[in-house]
Amino acid sequence: MEKIKVMTLFGTRPEAVKMAPLVKELEKCEVIESIVCVTAQHREMLDQVLELFKISPNYDLNIMKEKQTLTGITTRVLEGIEDVLDKEKPDIVLVHGDTTTTFAGGLAAFYKQIKVGHVEAGLRTFDKYFPFPEEMNRKLTGALADMHFSPTTASKSNLLREGVDEETIFITGNTVIDAMEHTVEENYVFENNRLNEINFEDKKIIMVTAHRRENWGEGIKNICEALKEIVEDNKDVELVYLVHLNPIVKDMVEEYLGNVERVHLLPPLDTKETHNLMNRSYMIMTDSGGLQEEAPHLGKPVLVLRDVTERPEAVEAGTVKLVGTNKKAIISEANTLIRNINEYEKMSRAINPYGDGNASKRIVENILYYFNMRENKAEDYKCE
């Protein structure tokens, strides 16, 4: 029997976390030949995920450069993957989400008239500059895609409004929930010993990440000033801020929070450390997209340090609240969750709308259906 040749392409840590369980599911399918190509848009952080999930790429474009630009990433992906596509001639290339690797990889496959499958398709803020460049990366990839694997009903609706053929849209849930089944451990001991020294039992630990491009400058400054006041006003609170390595972010965070008592500034952690820190924390404050999906799965309220989100389902479900970068708003919403147990429990007990751990299985089944190797589509994911 001739196999379907499926190439997965990714290059950053968030992509890798969400594609790893899908790669594993593809490898289990007897009628699929799985090929993994990484761009290494983020070298070190990508490698951590590959090691965690024991994935050995067939191709590594290794494109990362110091002070890389969006133009440079795009052109290096386009040029780097061309020979790979010519050699392997896959039946379909799977890309994920909204990175520059995603858009450039989808475009490269289109140029070769190779089918494109878009994992985590249909998320929208409807503002092309927020988040930048992710919103347009995602929309442009959607225009190139032949198969759209939407995590939720809402993301499918976005695609339908844009004129996408409903027959090409498959609601799967989000693969990040699949990934967390492999990373979160009840009695986890951290590799970073500073985390093992934190009193998670008696203190309310707030995990923080904030580094998005649109928050550089005044946004990060406001966030840091708010965090400082929150800690100083709540003696039972400690912060663990995972500080992005970009000097634009790192220098400002260290300036405002470097000497503040009960604030722990740590470099980015690998995926397993991050998921287990999240699991042990009281709440999450972030401008990340992925954490808005991950934290609710663990029953952790999330305050989103952005004005818009392409993930409105969690806001509607009540697990996530948009607070932006206004200092007073951040302090007010954080203090409510710290001091009002009823408000905290209302958010922590809300249903996570993003998945049941079977998204990767649904994607594989739908690929088989698309290529006439299965009679029916996989049943759409429905949030109960």
UniProtKB/TrEMBL annotation:
Taxonomic superkingdom: Bacteria
Gene Ontology terms for molecular function: UDP-N-acetylglucosamine 2-epimerase activity
Keyword Isomerase tagged: yes
Domain (UDP-N-acetylglucosamine 2-epimerase) ranges: 24-367
CDD domains documented for this protein: GTB_UDP-GlcNAc_2-Epimerase
E.C. number(s) listed in UniProt: 5.1.3.14
Keywords: Isomerase
Class of enzymatic activity (EC top level): isomerase
SUPFAM superfamilies linked: UDP-Glycosyltransferase/glycogen phosphorylase (SSF53756)
Pfam families, A to Z: Epimerase_2
Family recorded in the similarity comment: Belongs to the UDP-N-acetylglucosamine 2-epimerase family.
Name of the featured protein: UDP-N-acetylglucosamine 2-epimerase (non-hydrolyzing)
Source organism of the structure: Clostridium bornimense
Upper taxonomic lineage: Bacteria, Bacillati, Bacillota, Clostridia, Eubacteriales
